[in-house]
Design goal:
The protein is of the alpha/beta class and 1335 residues long. Helix 23 packs parallel to helix 27 and helix 25 crosses helix 27.
């Protein structure tokens, strides 16, 4: 990560701009920053919208320079920590040299060399919240930085083999052609200081006369020119041996990385001392140690200035004096802005006589003094949200406008000195290593003074409106025309009031970014060719929406001939960058920009705006939004009221956001991340790329989940590895869990239910739910674009969540429940719950990367004992990330582990009993008695001895009253052995037993279950006469089959599996498979338009639920759920039951006796039809069969762990119980194996040709004949064994039939002489497949 990619050094979530209190640095940056102003050729519509910026933290040039400074300072601290340590006796920081030395004891320890320390320091400084890695006891270094020792200073003329090193700051040519600054020679030297403005003199009558800077040079400028002469020394780097095979040495040992140390304040100060010695000035005269560039004895004539000297004493004498400058006097505003009239005034008079422009001279060393003038001035705003809070800031007096009136100067007041950093941070006056592209540190004020040289505003010629060049040297080379290329604001100042004290200019920016402004700015930057060089695709974006005929696009005005196009390009670039940063870094302005009528833009319009902005300045957009996202971590007002009155946990000036505001800001930032991805216009391609990245792959080559063009895959990789975008995504995801935690704390500590806010993700889903009534549709896109975008945003959000998870995952199934990882999981879970509204398939949420690297056996078992908290979660808590086959394997691993444990416990007990009997010398009788009493505990298997004539009865008799530990043991079934069958149970006998038992149990003739004649679905009989214990045993049979990994020949509706998993049944699609006719009729009822007739007249339905049982029609009026009691069964909702004994019929009235009269039943109308549908579904699936289902559920959960069932969805559980009924012969042939046969043998080809023509019934018979089950297991044919083994040759017509080993999925197929004999013999075997020989 480069220094530009880093945020402020604080790195925390609670600071939006993070300047660490370095007010002295802030003053210097404000003084030298290039101010952006509205260019001359701007549309007239923008001139009324532009506003001035008086807060230096909101100036993009200051923000960017501070990031560089903070990064270099942080690297310096880490190097000191790694090489020298803190010296504390009980240091616990692992990266501190003192801690390492203490841990090794007396053992020798090797100190990091400069390259190693630099490598680790850069890595630590680029982490999130890097200050947490700093040692609390770190002290200032006693010696200069070690990197300076490699620099050798030689008198001029001496030759040396070492490479000469230039310590001037590199000019950022791509960002505007910064000047070279110097003569280009090697060596340590300072750049000549040139003033950008013309100076002015004030005559006796108060008139202002502007002198050309070519005719007069101040004494300070003369000394600066002298310093620019050839130095008396050169600097070379000491030659060192280098391993060119070492990656670290070749990367972190380059000059570019060494500059990180050479340009730190401490290193610059050390080099300055050495340079002064060679310059013959060991005392530092005129070297920058003196804060006043003009010494007291300097007799160089200077030009008088019309600007009053203003000074603000540091740490003022009282709050009254601090507030005086902020008040209004004489009814005039605090800061008078330049008049907006006369924008089109020509500069002809100025070109003839340059004495009419009231300007101030740019003097970075002028003292900040108070004035006794009559006009009150405005204080400089520092805080981003609440300017009024400056009264509480102890440093607010330091950041006053230089134009502010504060009364006479208090010379007795001593200012304070800020010392926020642990290490000293002097800035040498000699170095040219600036933080701006064209500003050297020599122009910045030294940090040893408390007289901050701050000019809040500057005249237009004082760098705010550049002359078209990006550095003083370029300004001089551009000629007279460049010096006189003023902006419209300059024209205005020239034609305005002649009071020069008020002609001060501030940076300008637009306070709002709507679609027209975004299009105009992006079109301008792209047309000028000044966009940022980036890796996002496509590199440029043009308008592709359908423009409204009423809208009028913004257009640039034709600029004057005196202004060169190069100057305008630079001015537009500066203004665009400042506007984007000003708006996007402020949460209020960002939300306000993309809202209309109090509602967010629609998702596609918002995405379009972000798409265009990220293609001209992606780094700026991502960094600005990262700054704004810090406000998401400010606690809400209800939570702040819970704190102690004396607590300083929450800063007073930070304005908290409500969940609605936070959600809108979060949605804006997330759409920026979506816009970073390549522009794909095919939803299928979006899904395929998501599948590739879910495997952790960058390229989708052969054998991968999907294949896509290599170029597109690399474009995806560039977008999802962009460091600034990743940093933004990490902060956004961390904010999700933080906001939810705030809501939990507020809910726990508040009794007011009205205070509960909607979830922070609600605005996002309101946009994604198309069509949405909670957003405003701004731009018109085509139908195809709308359809693709409907899938684009949720799919790419899932991809971003996976990218952060894969980036942070350490290989453990236990993951953080909060932070960026937990927030990514929370976002995926929220999208998963909304997948039906977003039209996303479940496969879109899979993250196969995790499944491929987790232990399939041990990990699920360990998860059973894991207790998730807010800080620690488990990947299996989010089963939607895994495929169905993976979840089934985890589910069966849990069952197998429980079975193995039960088996081992019984085996161990049996061995102990035998050992005890052999050593105790007990008689054979007592041994038998002991064995009999411990039979239940010592049995290794659950053995069932079943007769074919009474399968269900024997099963019920032997399973009744079994202990839970017995049911968990491996199952062994003896089926028909008393009748001479030789079946040996290796799996096939179990399958046969369950097939026969479940078929008998679900027989409608018994009156417990009913089978739909159309769908063949099995359901409970409402009010059945069968006792509840029989339903419990049927559930136990199903549970045993699932526990032992067997499928059953049953077909239950999905509603049953939803109920078994505890999921509600509230939608019509929940009952569509089991009762399609009822679902269709209820759908028509809901969609009926009363224009075609009233609901009660057309449908004539009463608010009742009716069923027909045993030939009796039973009807009950449905009760609303709100009318029911909340604890036990709802009042009036108990469905009537038929008596299970004859003698009970006399005591209870018949169920049909309670049917209500037809005349008294209420009708279904338009007003209550929605409630009718909800209540009907509830009565159908719950109320009418509640007793029967509850008994069935008790038996079903007897063998299965409740937590293991949470891995399964209703569809997966259905496939586990029933298997897959569709049999694909082509897929079966693909995965079949052969023993004694060849795949190309004529008999094998005839076999598949015959089987392929079978109908579904014959296909199921074939599968049951070979595997003992007519269903395909979960995961498809590839998860089952189907083996064709040669069983000799058969030429006789009445010869052997095909046989099978069902336990091993093997078909013993003889070689017949022709196809007809094979078809006949195979059909005969399938039609008469019952009983076992060896199974």
């Amino acid at each position: 990560m480069t220094p530009d990619a880093l945020g402020p050094a604080d790195g925390g979530h609670g600071h939006g701009h993070g300047f660490n209190g370095d007010l002295d640095l802030l003053v210097g940056l404000w003084e030298e920053a290039r101010f952006a102003r509205l260019p001359l050729d701007a549309p007239s519509e923008l001139r009324d919208l532009v506003e001035d910026i008086d807060n230096p933290k909101r100036v993009y040039a200051v923000h960017r320079a501070s990031r560089r400074h903070n990064f270099q300072s942080l690297v310096q601290k880490f190097i000191v920590q790694l090489r020298d340590g803190c010296g504390a006796d009980y240091c616990k920081t692992p990266t501190c040299f003192t801690c390492r030395k203490r841990l090794v004891g007396r053992a020798p320890i090797r100190r990091y060399n400069t390259t190693s320390a630099r490598t680790l320091a850069v890595y630590l400084a680029t982490q999130d919240n890097p200050e947490s890695w700093l040692c609390p006891g770190l002290k200032p270094p006693k010696a200069p930085p070690a990197a300076v020792n490699s620099l050798l200073f030689h008198p001029t003329g001496r030759d040396d083999r070492g490479a000469s090193v230039s310590l001037k700051a590199p000019a950022a040519v791509p960002r505007g052609g910064a000047g070279k600054g110097g003569d280009g020679r090697n060596g340590l030297q300072s750049n000549p200081i040139r003033t950008r403005s013309e100076t002015r003199n004030e005559g006796a009558n108060g008139s202002v006369k502007v002198e050309s800077r070519r005719s007069s040079v101040s004494g300070f400028e003369e000394r600066a020119c002298k310093q620019s002469q050839e130095p008396r020394f050169t600097v070379t780097e000491q030659p060192t041996s280098k391993d060119y095979r070492s990656f670290a040495a070749n990367v972190f040992g380059t000059v570019a990385f060494k500059m990180l140390e050479w340009l730190t304040p401490a290193a610059i100060e050390e080099m300055s001392k050495k340079a002064r010695l060679f310059q013959g000035n060991p005392d530092g005269a005129d070297s920058g140690d003196n804060h006043n560039p003009r010494s007291e004895n300097d007799t160089t004539p200077s030009r008088p200035s019309s600007r009053r000297n203003i000074s603000q004493p540091l740490g003022g004498s009282g709050g009254e004096s601090k507030q005086q400058a902020a008040l209004e006097q004489n009814g005039k505003p605090v800061r008078e802005r330049a008049e907006r009239t006369g924008r089109d005034t020509k500069l002809d008079a100025q070109q003839r006589e340059p004495a009419t422009v009231p300007t101030q001279r740019r003097n970075s060393n002028a003292k900040v003094r108070t004035t006794s003038g009559p006009k009150p001035k405005r204080p400089l705003a520092v805080e981003p949200f609440n300017p009024d809070s400056l009264a509480d800031d102890p440093f607010s007096g330091l950041l006053r406008s230089p134009r502010a009136n504060g009364g006479p100067q208090d010379r007795s007041t001593r200012g304070i000195k800020t010392t926020n950093s642990t290490l000293p941070r002097p800035i040498s006056q000699l170095s040219s290593a600036g933080y701006f592209d064209d500003v050297s540190l020599e122009k910045m004020p030294p940090l040893k003074t408390v007289d901050f040289k701050l000019k809040v505003g500057r005249t237009q010629l004082d760098g705010a409106r550049s002359t078209g060049s990006t550095s003083p040297s370029d300004a001089e080379a551009s000629g007279v025309a460049s010096e006189r290329s003023y902006s419209n604001s300059s024209d205005q100042a020239a034609s305005g009031d002649s009071e020069s004290d008020d002609d001060v200019f501030y940076p300008q920016a637009l306070p709002k970014l709507d679609t027209d402004v975004v299009d105009f700015i992006c079109d301008t930057i792209q047309a000028d060719g000044t966009a940022e060089q980036h890796m996002l695709e496509p590199p440029t974006i043009k308008k592709f929406y359908i423009r409204d005929s009423q809208g009028k696009p913004l257009k640039r005005r034709s600029h004057a001939a005196r202004t060169s196009p190069t100057n305008l390009k630079l001015e537009w670039k500066l203004f665009a960058e400042q506007t984007l940063f000003y708006v996007l870094s402020d949460p209020d302005l960002a939300v306000r920009s993309f809202c209309a009528n109090g509602q967010l833009y629609d998702s596609q319009t918002l995405w379009y705006c972000m798409l265009r902005m990220t293609r001209i300045a992606p780094s700026l957009v991502f960094d600005s939004l990262w700054v704004a996202a810090a406000s998401l971590f400010f606690p809400p007002k209800p939570l702040q009221r819970l704190r102690s009155p004396t607590s300083k946990l929450f800063p007073k000036y930070e304005r908290p956001l409500t969940n609605a505001e936070a959600g809108r800001l979060l949605s804006i930032c997330l759409h920026a991340l979506v816009a970073a991805a390549p522009l794909v216009k095919d939803s299928r391609q979006l899904s395929e790329m998501s599948r590739i990245r879910s495997h952790g792959l960058a390229l989708g080559g052969s054998g991968s989940a999907a294949q896509q063009p290599t170029a597109l895959c690399l474009q995806y990789e560039d977008a999802f590895t962009d460091e600034l975008a990743i940093r933004l995504a990490r902060r956004l995801f961390a904010a999700i869990t933080t906001r939810r935690y705030f809501d939990e704390v507020v809910e726990v500590n508040s009794t007011d239910t009205d205070m509960k806010e909607a979830d922070v993700l609600t605005p996002l889903f309101s946009q994604l739910d198309l069509p949405s009534i909670d957003c405003v549709y701004i731009l018109n896109f085509s139908i195809n674009d709308r359809a693709v975008h409907e899938h684009r945003v949720p799919i790419l959000l899932l991809d971003w969540a996976r990218a952060i998870m894969l980036h942070d995952w350490d290989g453990s199934p236990e993951v953080p429940g909060d932070g960026a990882f937990g927030g990514a999981l929370a976002l995926m879970e929220a999208i998963y719950k909304k997948r039906h509204d977003l039209a996303l398939p479940r496969a879109q949420f899979r993250s196969e990367y995790f499944a491929e690297r987790l232990d399939t056996v041990q990990m699920p078992v360990a998860w059973l004992h894991h207790k998730s908290t807010r800080q620690r979660a488990h990947l299996l808590d989010f089963p939607f990330m895994f495929s169905s086959s993976t979840l089934v394997s985890y589910f069966r691993s849990i069952n197998f582990a429980r079975m193995s444990r039960s088996f081992e416990e019984s085996t161990s007990l049996q061995e102990k009993v035998e050992l005890l009997a052999s050593r105790s010398g007990i008689t054979h009788h007592y041994k038998d008695v002991l064995t009999e009493r411990l039979k239940t505990a010592a049995s290794k298997y659950l053995v069932l001895d079943i007769k074919r004539e009474r399968v269900l009865r024997d099963a019920f008799d032997q399973l009744w009253k079994r202990e839970a530990r017995e049911l968990l043991r491996p199952l062994k079934v003896h089926l028909g052995e008393r009748n001479g069958e030789e079946g040996f149970d290796s799996g096939g006998v179990q399958q046969e037993f369950f097939r026969m038992a479940i078929a008998e149990a679900l027989n409608p003739d018994y009156g417990a279950f009913t089978v739909d004649e159309v769908t063949r679905m099995t359901w409970f009989v409402p009010g059945s006469m069968e006792p509840e214990w029989k339903f419990e045993l049927v559930g136990l049979l199903v549970s045993l089959a699932v526990y032992n990994g067997l499928t059953l020949p049953v077909t239950f509706p999905k509603a049953l599996y939803r109920k078994l998993l505890g999921k509600p049944i509230t939608e019509l699609h929940h009952i569509a498979d089991g009762w399609p006719e009822k679902a269709s009729g209820l759908t028509k009822l809901l969609e009926w338009d009363e224009k075609d007739g009233l609901v009660e007249d057309v449908f004539t339905l009463t608010y009742e639920f009716s069923v027909e049982v045993f030939g009796q029609h039973i009807t009950r009026e449905m009760k609303a759920l709100s009318q029911a009691s909340s604890n036990t069964e709802p009042t009036g909702e108990e469905w009537p039951q038929f008596p299970d004994m004859a003698w009970q019929s006399a005591r209870k009235p018949a169920p049909q006796a309670g049917n209500p009269d037809i005349d008294t039943a209420p009708m279904v109308t338009n007003e209550n039809r929605n409630a009718y549908v909800s209540d009907y579904i509830r009565y159908l699936t719950d109320v009418s069969v509640r007793r029967q289902f509850d008994a069935f559920a008790r038996g079903f959960h007897a063998c299965l762990h409740p937590k293991s069932l949470s891995l399964l969805t209703p569809n997966i559980l259905q496939s586990v119980v029933e298997g897959v009924q569709e049999i694909d012969i082509s897929e079966l042939r693909q995965y079949a194996r052969y023993v004694g046969w060849d795949a190309n043998h004529p008999t094998i080809r005839d076999f598949w040709s015959i089987v392929k023509r079978y109908d579904d019934a014959m296909k199921r018979k074939l599968l049951e004949f070979v595997t003992a089950s007519d269903r395909v297991p979960v995961g498809g044919v590839k998860n089952m064994m189907f083996i064709l083994q040669k069983n000799g040759t058969e030429d006789e017509p009445n010869g052997r039939l095909p046989t099978s080993y069902t336990c091993y999925g093997t078909l013993l197929l003889p070689q017949y002489k022709d196809r007809e004999m094979l078809r006949e013999r195979l059909a005969m075997a399938l039609e008469n497949a019952q009983g076992f020989g060896f199974a």
